[in-house]
Amino acid sequence: MAGPPTRTHLPAARVTVRGLHRAFSHGSTAHLVLRDIDLDVPPGETLALLGPSGCGKSTLLRQIAGLDRPTGGSVEIDGATVHDVHPRCAVVFQEPRLLAWRTLAANVALGLPRGGDRAEGRARIRHWLDVVGLADFHDHRPHQISGGMAQRVALARALARRPGVLLLDEPLAALDALTRLRMQDLIDRVQREAGTTVVLVTHDVEEALHLADRVALLGHAPDRPGATVRGLVDVPPGRPRDRGDRTLAALRADLLERLGVPRRSGPTLTQETP
Fold first, then answer.
1. How many CB atoms lie within 10 A of CB 43?
2. Nearest-angstrom CA–CA distance, 181 and 34
3. 52 pLDDT exceeds 80?
4. DSSP string across 53-99
5. pLDDT tens across 160-201, in order?
6. How far apart are CA 158 and CA 152, in angstroms?
7. For residues 160 and 111, is the Cβ–Cβ distance under 8 A?
8. What angle do CA 233, 235, 51 make, to 5 degrees?
9. Are 25 and 36 contacting, i.e. CB atoms less than 8 angstroms apart?
10. CA-atom Rg of the chain in angstroms
11. Is the pTM for the entire model greater than 0.85?
12. Domain residue spans in the chain?
């Protein structure tokens, strides 16, 4: 493995969201997507954003990244207000978004900050491709690898940026079930090595519990427009996590119920009296 860019090269940043609103205009009307969002993500924490489809999870992630601006309120990275694409953030999207004509190493190079030392940049590319298990694929093109491998390249590209905040917008949604589980383990291991702050958007309760230190539940109040944070749930410490842990199973049932999925009662067995 290449010489490691250690934790000191990947300083974790604090994310602070205060009173954030985001509305989108449609002609003379405005559609409020996010309302009164308050979040504080300490350095090095992994926070999962969980909620029903269309509740604004990805919109909130774009606000943190500086890819979109709030209608009201603010986002801060280490106390500095985010006004534009923030240099301390890196985003991994649902699709890998690799350039077909570039090698995997050249795709990862797109994540490097401009003006850096070339030798250091090459070492960083080798390191993160090795970490994500692609040590023997540096010179391959995207069409020569699988979808799961392509997402690993996207993760390496984001980490090559040395982000203080890593933003994951359902990066595993398109993968098959087994590849998804393996990628969850990889993201968990990489986060613990990098030490960066992570904000993860997911629809998958199990994924949130496997990767996150806390889960923020987003949703709509019955009588008010715009999604807000309906609750924050602490996940028991200790990683890597055992997917069969009974505590996590109970927490999973609680989260599903809070998301509107009723608990299933066990089957009722009856016996006729002779």
1. 15
2. 31
3. yes
4. TTSSHHHHHHHHHTSS--SEEEEEETTEEP-SS-TTEEEE-SS----
5. 888 999 999 998 888 888 888 989 999 998 888 888 999 999
6. 10
7. yes
8. 45
9. no
10. 20
11. yes
12. 101-162
